Amino acid sequence: MSLGLFVCSFCGRAVFPRRLLCPDCGGSEWRREPVETGMLEAATEREVRVGAVRTPLGPLAITRIESGAEPGAEVSLDQDGDTPLAR
Amino acid sequence: MTGDRPIARIVAAVETPYMRHPAEDVTTESLLADAFVRVLASAGLERGLVDGLGVASFTHTPDRAIDLAWKLGIRPRWLMDDGNGGASGIQLLQHAMCAIEAGDATTVVLLSGDHFDRDSFRTLVDNYNRTTAEFLAGIPTGGPNVLFAMLTRKQMEANGLEREDYGRLVVAQRRWAGLNPGAVYRAPLTLEEYLASPVVAEPLHRLDCVPVVSGADALVVSAAGEGVTVRALRALHNHDGQEGDGLQTGIAEFAGGLWEDADAGPEDMDVVSVYDDYPAMALAQLVDLGFVPDGDLGGFLRRRFEDGALPVNTSGGQLSAGQAGAAGGMHGLVEAVTQLLGRADERQVDDARLAVVTGYGMVLYRYGGCANAVVLERS
C-alpha cells in the first residue's frame, strides 16, 4: 500500500508525475520512492471523489479518494496501475 | 533595423457561427475552410495573395496545415501548425508577425477550429497529453472540471469569495453575449439562475464550465493595409513546473514588461479579452495583468462587473459564446480585433482604441502550462 514517487538518482529531488529530466539538476535517472501517507489538501466529486494530496516528499498528487476523508485529513496512499488512490 | 522593414497588421478577424449541435456534414476541415473564406471576404483579399498559413486544432489530425493549404488551393511560403490550445491564437500571431516583418510572407491567414462529437471529446480529454492518459484518466477525472473545481475552491478560500462573486462575471459576460448573434447562449441570465444551475464538481456548476461547440476563428495578418497593430506581446510557458498553486499564471511574471513595452497600463484598455475556461481563471488572469491592484477580488467583481463598467470578454466569452476547442485560443483575439476595427455592431465599445488579450491553457497535470498576452492598438 503505497504510491511511487519519482526521485532523481543524482540529487534526490522528488517529482510526481514523472518528468524526463530532473527540474533541479537535469538528471535523467529516476528511482521509485514509495510513500504511504499524505495530507489531503483539496477534494471534489464528479462520478468519483477526487483529491489533491500533498506527499511527505513535496509533490502534490491528484488521486481518487476511496473514503470519506475531507481536506485537512491525513490519508493513506496507494496506486492501481499508474492511478493514484487515497483512503 | 531598416526603415523599409514591413509592419505586420491584423487586417481582418472573423468567427464562424458557433454551433452546439452541428449538422451531420460538419467536419473540422469544413469549419476551417468556412473561416478561411469568410476572413478573406472580410479583408477584401483574393485567395491567390495568401502566402502564409497557420493552423491550430485538436481534431484536424491526422491532417496538417499543408493538407489544408492543398485543399484550399493556396501556395504558402510560410506554414505552421500549433497545438497549444488556449495559447495557440496569440502563439500563431507571435510567429506570423515575425514572418511578415522578416519578409518570409506578406499575407498570412491564421485559422483555428474544432468539431467534436461526444466520443471525440471524451477521447480528447482522456488523452489530452501523455500525463493525463497515464496518471489522471484512470481515476477517472473525466476532463479538467475536477482540477479547476479544486483550484476555484482554493481561490475562494484565499480571497473570501462566494459562488455569487463568480456569478457577477458570468452574468456580465452573458449580458454581452445577448448582443452577439454568434454566441450560443444569449438569453439573459440572473444571478439566481446562475446559482441554481446544476452542480458539475463542487464548487463548479454548469454555468462555470464552457459549453463545447463546433466552430472556427480566423485572422489575416498582413504587411499591407490598415488594421490593428501589436504594441506588445509576451509569453511565458511552464512558468512554475506545475508546482505552484495554479492560481497565478505565467502572465504575472511578464505583465510588468508587457505594459512597459505597450507604454500603457491596465486602466488604459478599452477592451479586455481574458481566456475564460473557468471564471476563477479569468479572474486569476485579470489579477496577473494588474487589474486588481488592491488585491480585493470580491470588491473588483462587485464594482467592475455589475454594470459592464469594465468591458471584459465582450463577445460573451467562451462561457456564453462557446468553446470550439483550439479556437478558444483565438476567440478573444477575434473579439478584440473586431472591437478595434469598429465592427462589433450592437456590442461595440465606444471609440475602442486599445485592447489586451490573454491566452492560457494546456493543462499539463494540475492546471494550464501556457500563458501569453498581447496589447493591440487600432492603427
- Report Rg of chain A: 13 Å
Order of helices and strands of chain A: EEEEEEEE
Total domains of chain B: 2
CATH class of chain A, anyone? Mainly Beta
Structural class of chain B, by secondary structure, is: alpha/beta
Low confidence ranges of chain B: none
CATH architecture of chain A: Beta Barrel
- Please bin the fraction of helical residues of chain B: 25-40%
| Helix fraction bin of chain A | under 10%
Report the strand count of chain A. Answer: 8
Overall geometry of chain B comes to globular
Flag low-confidence runs of chain A. none
The CATH C-level name of the largest domain in chain B is Alpha Beta
Let me know the largest β-sheet of chain B.
5 strands, mixed
CATH topology of chain A: OB fold (Dihydrolipoamide Acetyltransferase, E2P)
Q: Oligomeric state of the chains?
A: heterodimer
CATH architecture of the largest domain in chain B: 3-Layer(aba) Sandwich
DSSP summary, beta strand count of chain B: 11
What features would you describe in this structure?
- The complex is a heterodimer of chains A (87) and B (379).
- By secondary structure, chain A is mainly β.
- Chain A has a single domain (3-86), classed as OB fold (Dihydrolipoamide Acetyltransferase, E2P) (Beta Barrel), CATH 2.40.50.
- Chain A has no helices and 8 strands.
- In chain A, strands 4-5-6-8-7 form a 5-stranded mixed β-barrel. In chain A, strands 2-1-3 form a 3-stranded antiparallel β-sheet, with no helix packed on it.
- In chain A, a hairpin with a 1-residue loop joins strand 4 and strand 5 (48-54).
- Chain A is elongated and about 40 Å long.
- Chain B is an alpha/beta fold and 379 residues long.
- Chain B folds into 2 domains: 9-117 and 216-226, Thiolase/Chalcone synthase (Peroxisomal Thiolase, Chain A, domain 1, 3-Layer(aba) Sandwich); 119-207 and 230-378, Thiolase/Chalcone synthase (Peroxisomal Thiolase, Chain A, domain 1).
- Chain B has helices at 28-43, 65-72, 88-101, 118-126, 130-136, 145-159, 163-177, 191-196, 251-262, 279-289, 297-305, 317-321, 328-340, and strands spanning 9-15, 52-56, 78-81, 107-114, 199-201, 204-205, 215-222, 228-235, 271-273, 354-363, 368-378.
- In chain B, strands 1-7-4-2-3 form a 5-stranded mixed β-sheet, sandwiched between helices. A 4-stranded mixed β-sheet of chain B has the order 8-11-10-9, sandwiched between helices.
- In chain B, helix 2 (65-72) links the parallel strand 2 and strand 3 (78-81).
- In chain B, helix 7 packs parallel to helix 11 and helix 9 packs across helix 10 (279-289).
- Chain A binds chain B through residues 17, 23, 42-48, 50-52, 59-60, 62-64, 80-84, and chain B through 131, 134-136, 138-142, 145-147, 149-150, 153-154, 200-204, 241, 243, 365-366.
